[in-house]
Write a structure and sequence with these properties.
This protein is mainly α. It contains one helix and no strands. The N and C termini lie far apart (73 Å).
């Protein structure tokens, strides 16, 4: 029983290391974020309009 408890940290370490290896080797790599063909087009945003002081609480 004590041997099983003593092995738990090593089993957890092996699990984390194997998941890290799996993430690096098996999962597809993300696209290059600097590639301009993969980025979404941006819309220029102007300054926000100032609220109208004559209208109170949207009435």
């Amino acid at each position: 029983m004590y041997a099983l408890v003593a092995l738990v940290p090593f089993i957890l370490l092996a699990t984390v290391m194997s998941l890290s290896w799996w993430e690096d080797r098996i999962l597809p790599t993300p696209a290059d974020p600097t590639d301009p063909s993969r980025t979404a087009p941006t819309t220029p945003v102007g300054p926000h309009p100032t609220p109208d002081p004559t209208r109170l609480n949207g009435r």
